[in-house]
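Following up on my earlier message about adenosine-5'-diphosphate. Here are the inputs again, as you asked, copied directly from the submission form:
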Amino acid sequence: MSLSSDILVPVLLFLVVLLFFFLLISLSKARKLRSSLSKLMISFKELDDQAKLIVRTDLELNKTQEDLDRRLNGLDALQKISRLVTTTLDETEIFRRLDQPLLTELGFEKYLVLLFSSEGQLHPHVNFGFSPEEVSGLKTALENFDRLVEILKEEGLVSSHKGPQTLREIFKLNALLKYFVLTPILAQNDTPGLVIAGNQTGHASITEGDEELLSILADQIGQAISNARLFEKVYRSSQMQEIKVQDRTKQLSTALEEVNKISKAKSEFISAVSHELRTPLTSIKGYAALLMTGKLGQIPEKVQERLDKINKHSDNLVKLINDLLDISRIESGRIEMKRNEYHLKPMIESVADLLGPQLKDKGIHFVSEVPDGLPPLLVDGSQIERVFINLVSNAIKFTPADGTITIKVERNPDHLLVSAADSGIGIKKEDLSKLFNEFYRVENEINQNVKGTGLGLALTKKIIEAHGGKIWVESQVNKGTTFFFTLPFDRKS
Ligand code: ADP
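Thanks, got it. Here's what our run produced:
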């Protein structure tokens, strides 16, 4: 018994110590486990937070993506609308091109474009989504809104979260619009109208991007309206100009008809008077000639002198009458140019021969510069010779002794250019334009002493024109005068 209790006590003690030792170990393990558990709990919470953050970020990203898509769609639609409205110059067509599917892509549910009339009333030109009652309510309220245009110009635009409260009330009251944008259409310092866009659905609020989009749309419409109105103005004024030109042309052709009538009457009158004068003049000249022969009795010397004068004056008068008759006949086309092939060189030589005595008298040098091998001209030889005689006689008359007269002919593709130049007294600038008028004679010393009719150049011009040519003159006082005229090769009539 005592042995067993001796052994048992230490064993029990040992066991108790062992147990205590194990208890201590377990306690420390439990403590470690608990601390690991709490660490795990923290990590788990952190993971949970991060997961929530990821979900939240993902949602936000999705929303931003949607917004971006909407903006991109809007911008794309805006670009299409811009291209459409700015490529027409017809104002009605601008609004026809603002069609619903495109506008809807800008991101609003309803659209209304109103234009001011000249009396300041608003008229709808585009309407998608607004009922007639809503349009009429908005129109009246906006028309009566004090300083609407000024406010819009100052603010740039008004929307459901920007601008006067009173305007917001108008949209809520008349169109039940919680979200809206109202922008002015600006065109060349003018505000021709308004663009309204809005969303009725509660969640579809207006962003700054939406406002910007609508403002660009209004600008594009304004630009298109400006172009169309400017074009209309230019087109109208060009039409007015055309009408004026037509009126003027009509007036001018009536005046021309009148001038032709008068000119015809003048030619007929001159022709009749000349005929009437020519007959008695021929008798006067005949009688004077008869008296001068002495067949009707001896004529005293003094009477003879007078008769000689009568004869000379009659000759001058006959020349004047013949020139007058020819001018009026050529003018009325009653003288036909008898055309044949002529070379100018021999014609000029024959004129120089004819006027040789006068040239010699004044000691004037005559030079003719006509190139060889010129083709013949189809002209009335006697009339063209008359032209040369007139020009050279005048040149002799107005060139002092020892001067030079040069006739030059130049070949051009379709005509010959003839010039008759002298080294004479010349003609003042102010007289040049009147030189070819009938009876015009420059007032100078030579004309005061030498008789002339003032018909030579008028007749010369008529003859050249009847051949399809042109005549003009250049001159310098005290240096000389040059007459130029052209004669075409191919004129058949
Ligand atoms: P007329 O010789 O009978 O006066 P013309 O019609 O031939 O009539 O000429 C009109 C006027 O033109 C002349 O009076 C003269 O004043 C001027 N004139 C013509 N040819 C010349 C010339 N070569 N040099 C200067 N003046 C000229």
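One observation from looking it over: The chain has 14 helices and twelve strands. Hope that helps, and feel free to reply on this thread.
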